[in-house]
Amino acid sequence: MANLKEIKRKIGSVKNTQKTTNAMKLVSSAKLKRTEELAKRSRVYAAKLTELLNEIAQKMHHSNAEGLDNVFFKDASNPKRVDIIFITADKGLCGGFNSQTIKRTSQLIADYKAKGVKLRLRAVGRKGIDFFKFNNVELNDEIIGLSAAPDFAQAAEFISEVSESYVNGETDKIILVHNGYVNMITQEIRQDQVLPVDASKIELSSKSTSELEVEPDDDDTLLDALVKRYVEYTMYYSLIDSLAAEHSARMQAMDAATKNAKEMVKELNVKYNKARQESITTELIEIISGMESMK
Fold first, then answer.
1. What Cα–Cα distance (Å) separates residue 226 from each residue in 39, 47, 161, 167, 222?
2. Shared-domain flag, residues 229 and 283
3. Where would I find the H helices in the chain?
4. Which of 29, 44, 227, 251 has a CA positioned 20 to 30 A from the CA of residue 94?
5. Are 286 and 216 contained in the same domain?
6. What are phi and psi of 75, to 5 degrees?
7. Within this chain, do residues 7 and 60 fall inside the same structural domain, yes or no?
8. What pLDDT digit, counting tens, does each position of 108-143 carry?
9. Cα(154)–Cα(133) distance, rounded to whole angstroms?
10. 208 phi and psi angles, rounded to 5 deg
11. Are 79 and 134 found together in one domain?
12. Mean pLDDT (the chain, rounded)
């Protein structure tokens, strides 16, 4: 009987877990829909911003005989100092979502250290912060809460210090790593070079068809302002992209946990029925044996 009670207790415990994981899956699904819509709108703005940046860069390229000459577009093929910003979640229970970002960041650290490059790490999200602190890796900056609730003002403030370091020559390259959203069942690691702006991504055609009119003396001022907003919005959009990926990863993880719990309940029910049948058979044998001994 003690064995039956133990199995029954386990069945009740697993069923409660199943209810919890199913509820978490539904919550993540609802949050994903809202975040996915926000990501779509943000993607449109980012595309327009990049298009405008292209136009100004083209005009500067055509007006300058030496090509595009701007601090934000300098060559960074052999950097001496690199800032790495990585985004993880504040919470777990989302499969390998956080571990993939941490793995890519760790690989970047190893690669740059092997080249003798000085590194500064800046972390967004509790899981990444906890991991690197546990492994005694120094973090130059950290923030908790931003990855769970992206805010443009906070994102801009967080990355502004790094941007200023780049302009002042304190760092040669800024890299942003996060786990991005592809669809409801897929996430992928994204590694973006925030600064300097990758000139290969700027379409510098020989002929400009843009109707944008800018005075030559205003080119640098306008380009600097656009790059600043571009960097700020890249940070903000990465946070939204990461949050959408987090929700989809958690939804999948909780769905898998719910299915596993359901299978476990089935197995425990079979085990319970077998144990109950054995108990009944044992009792019947004892009763029959007792009756036989009384004859």
1. 21, 13, 17, 14, 6
2. no
3. 2-63, 97-114, 126-134, 152-167, 219-294
4. 44
5. no
6. -75, 135
7. no
8. 999 999 999 999 999 999 999 999 999 999 999 999
9. 23
10. -100, 125
11. yes
12. 84
pLDDT of residue 206: 43
Place of tokens 């990465």: 238
The rounded distance, in Å, linking the Cα atoms of 164 and 195 is 11
Q: Which residue's structure tokens are 């009384």?
A: 294
Instruction: Tell if the pTM clears 0.85, that is, is over it.
Output: no
- Close Cβ partners of 111 (under 8 Å, ≥ 6 residues apart): none
Please, is 215 exposed, middle or buried when counting C-beta atoms within 10 Å of its C-beta (0-12, 13-18, 19+)? exposed
For 176-219, the pLDDT digits (tens) are 999 999 888 889 999 988 888 876 655 544 444 445 454 545 55
Q: Give yes or no: residues 248 and 264 share one domain.
A: no
**Cis amide bond preceding 196, omega within 30:** yes
**Where residue 105 sits, what CATH number does that domain have?**
3.40.1380.10
| Radius of gyration in angstroms for the set of CA atoms belonging to the chain, rounded to a whole number | 29
- Lookup: tokens for 14: 């697993």
Q: Is the pLDDT of residue 245 over 90?
A: yes
Nearest Cα residue to 243 out of 96, 87, 65, 137: 87
CATH code, domain with 286: 1.10.287.80
Structurally, the chain folds into a number of domains equal to 2
User: Same structural domain for residues 105 and 235?
Assistant: yes
Considering the domain architecture, whether residues 130 and 269 belong to the same structural domain is answered as no
**267, 241: one domain:** no
pLDDT, one tens digit per residue, over 35-87 is 988 888 888 887 788 777 777 766 666 555 455 567 788 877 888 999 999 99
Q: Could you tell me the end-to-end alpha-carbon distance of the chain, in angstroms, rounded to an integer?
A: 29
Range of the domain at 39: 28-253
Computed from CA positions of residues 187, 228, 49, 208, in that sequence, does the dihedral angle turn out positive or negative?
negative
- Tokens at 207, concatenated: 């002929």
Sign of CA dihedral 171, 172, 178, 181: positive
